């Protein structure tokens, strides 16, 4: 780069090579959780062509420094600057991801074995739009969600949610009106199932452990209810009349 002071070299970050799968998490703080997640991914996904992508939506220099120290051949950090709503940050990560398949994790999830392999296998089955560890079915109407072991369910929880990246981008990604995380995962599941005419499936026995869900626990009960209610009504506006999406 030339300037009045002379020429100097400027580091340019090259685009990542294409991968079969991106293991993705969104970081809003609590870097220890993200590092525990990353350690599990690196330890148990080496048998796949993968990258680990940490989308830093914290706006915290200390978090950024911790994550930057973990960059490597298989680990990348995307800084969301300025920090954005949950869905917008997730969409920026989807656009950046190098994997043909994306597995989205809550950073409170810890891997104790290969989770990518069974999820990738599930997505190769005809008609499967999304796959994951924890599913729900609607009881009676869209929006009345209850945990269900499946294997066929109405939606997959975002603790561990796998889908084909191109499908998600073509469908518009996560709904950007979901600034809080709750139900954004279910909305994407409905969107992909609708677009592809496919199913959501639970993959049993995935070697994952759920720890604290920080974005939930960081809020008081009143604020949780306020943000959750906004997302709930948004989901109903979009999908509340689509009883065909309820598994019978």
Overview of this protein structure:
The chain has a single domain, classed as Spore Coat Polysaccharide Biosynthesis Protein SpsA, Chain A, CATH 3.90.550.10. The protein has helices at residues 31-44, 61-68, 86-96, 116-123, 165-170, 184-196, 214-217, 221-239; strands at 2-3, 6-7, 19-27, 50-56, 75-79, 99-105, 109-111, 128-132, 135-138, 145-148, 152-153, 155-156, 160-164, 199-202, 208-210. It is globular, with a radius of gyration of 18 Å. The longest helix has 19 residues, at 221-239. It contains 8 helices and 15 strands. It is 33% helix and 26% strand. Helix 6 (184-196) packs parallel to helix 8 (221-239). The mean pLDDT is 95. With 248 residues, it is α/β, with parallel strands linked by helices.
List the helices and strands and how they pair.
Blueprint: E1 2-3, E2 6-7, E3 19-27, H1 31-44, E4 50-56, H2 61-68, E5 75-79, H3 86-96, E6 99-105, E7 109-111, H4 116-123, E8 128-132, E9 135-138, E10 145-148, E11 152-153, E12 155-156, E13 160-164, H5 165-170, H6 184-196, E14 199-202, E15 208-210, H7 214-217, H8 221-239
Parallel strand pairs: 3-4, 3-6, 4-5, 8-14
Antiparallel strand pairs: 1-2, 6-13, 7-15, 8-13, 9-10, 9-12, 11-14
Helix pairs in contact: 6-8
């Amino acid at each position: 780069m030339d300037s009045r002071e002379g020429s100097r070299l400027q580091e340019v970050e090259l685009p990542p090579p294409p991968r079969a799968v991106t293991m993705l998490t969104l970081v809003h703080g609590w870097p220890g959780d993200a590092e525990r997640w990353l350690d599990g991914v690196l330890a148990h996904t080496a048998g796949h062509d993968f990258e680990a992508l940490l989308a830093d939506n914290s706006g915290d220099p200390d978090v950024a420094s911790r994550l930057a120290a973990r960059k490597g051949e298989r680990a990348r950090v995307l800084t969301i600057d300025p920090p954005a709503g949950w869905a917008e940050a997730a969409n920026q990560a989807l656009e950046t991801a190098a994997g043909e398949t994306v597995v989205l994790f809550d950073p409170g999830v810890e891997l104790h074995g290969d989770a990518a392999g069974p999820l990738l296998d599930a997505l190769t089955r005809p008609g499967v739009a999304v796959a994951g560890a924890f599913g729900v079915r609607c009881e009676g109407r869209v929006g009345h969600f209850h945990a269900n072991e499946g294997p066929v369910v109405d939606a997959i929880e975002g603790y561990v949610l796998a889908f084909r990246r191109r499908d998600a981008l073509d469908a518009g990604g996560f709904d950007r009106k979901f600034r809080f995380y709750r139900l954004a995962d279910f909305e994407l599941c409905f969107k992909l199932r609708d677009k592809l005419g496919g199913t959501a499936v639970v993959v049993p026995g995935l070697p994952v452990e759920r720890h604290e869900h920080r974005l939930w626990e960081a809020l008081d009960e009143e604020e949780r209810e306020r943000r959750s209610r906004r997302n709930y009504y948004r989901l109903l506006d979009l999908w509340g009349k689509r009883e065909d999406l309820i598994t019978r």
